[in-house]
Amino acid sequence: MSKCTDEEDPTTRKPEYDRLSKLKAFDETRAGVKGLVDSGIKHVPRMFHHQFENNPVSCGIQVSIPIIDLEKVKQNRTTREEIVGKVRNASKTWGFFQVLNHGIPMNVMEEMKDGARRFFEQDVESKSRFFSRDFTKRVVYNSNFDLYSAPAAKWRDTVVCSMAPDPPKPEELPAVFSDIMLEYSKQVMNLGYLLFELLSEALGLNPDYLKDIDCAKGLVMLSHYYPICPQPELTLGSSKHADNGFLTILLQDNVGGLQVLHQNQWINVPPTPGALVINIGDLLQLISNDRFTSVDHRVVTNSVSPRVSVASFFTTALVPDTRLYGPIKELLSQNNPRKYKETTVKDFITYFNSKGLSGTSPLPHFKLSKPSHGDK
């Protein structure tokens, strides 16, 4: 009888890592990443381990995304034209900018962050009433929308609420922050209308153009909670990705962690008191025919303090809408031919979600193989 090696002996073989069962077990707790931290874990579970890209984090000379002051944007034509120029440049070269004097009161922003924190720091039973993976529901709480499709899980929990075009009733929302969600979302819609006016003008279109084609019709609000992480070098709060909607307005607390990929370097976006972070989404890049840029970004974790952010996405992803979106005809010319085929928002988002936050842009999938007059 031949002698068995260790590799052949099933009693000494290490069991294979069953990732799916680990994901299911985590999901079934309904406690999210915060539940793991509250349980006292000292090591980040393997399902959260990320392969980090080689792009360096910018150090030394401080490079920062543009900050645009919106004061007097409606009072002074010269000032407005200057602001439009800054929005155009930031949307083209960075895909990101911060805005000050945007009209949303500081106390409203602070209460929105506090409300989000209250939700996530409730007991599991209170949160789990909203737990679901059915994103057609008005309110959905879970950890990682792409838990089963992404290469690695992210170190964050999220509550998703559809706030427009059909605002929810207060009783449909989590009681711990229902009032402030409704107030903050109204304020964000007003700011969104202004930003879409400025973006329309930056494209050389009439101010209402983007609003008239329903870019500001839908609003989905994602409140994120990034718990303290025992091993920040192993995982990410949000992996490298670009947003899939038209425009995002981000409210972040004073913890920091957001990084934008600019010229192959990760640039930190430190919180600026009173400012909101604005970024161009994939669909706005598509309809602007690459005039504006949707840029990759991520959130790093830390071992000191939990982070709260509220991302408001202008998208009709949760609205039944058959409108086709393609490059805006008024922007096309012999020198700037159409680069993308038309798509519905639903089809675009379905393709995006099938890949999860994998760091791979969905835009190439919708590019025409040959622009009508040659490539740019």
From TrEMBL:
Q: Name one GO molecular function term.
A: dioxygenase activity
Q: Does the keyword Iron apply?
A: yes
Q: Does the keyword Iron apply?
A: yes
Q: Where on the tree of life does the source sit, at the highest rank?
A: Eukaryota
Q: Which Gene3D superfamilies match?
A: B-lactam Antibiotic, Isopenicillin N Synthase, Chain
Which keywords does this Swiss-Prot/TrEMBL entry list?
Answer: Iron, Metal-binding, Oxidoreductase
The record ties this protein, via Pfam families, to:
2OG-FeII_Oxy (PF03171), DIOX_N (PF14226)
Where is each Fe2OG dioxygenase domain found? Answer: 217-316
What does the record give as cofactor?
Answer: Fe cation
UniProt record similarity statement: Belongs to the iron/ascorbate-dependent oxidoreductase family.
PANTHER family, from UniProt? 1-AMINOCYCLOPROPANE-1-CARBOXYLATE OXIDASE HOMOLOG 1-LIKE, OXIDOREDUCTASE, 2OG-FE II OXYGENASE FAMILY PROTEIN
**What is this protein identified as?**
Fe2OG dioxygenase domain-containing protein
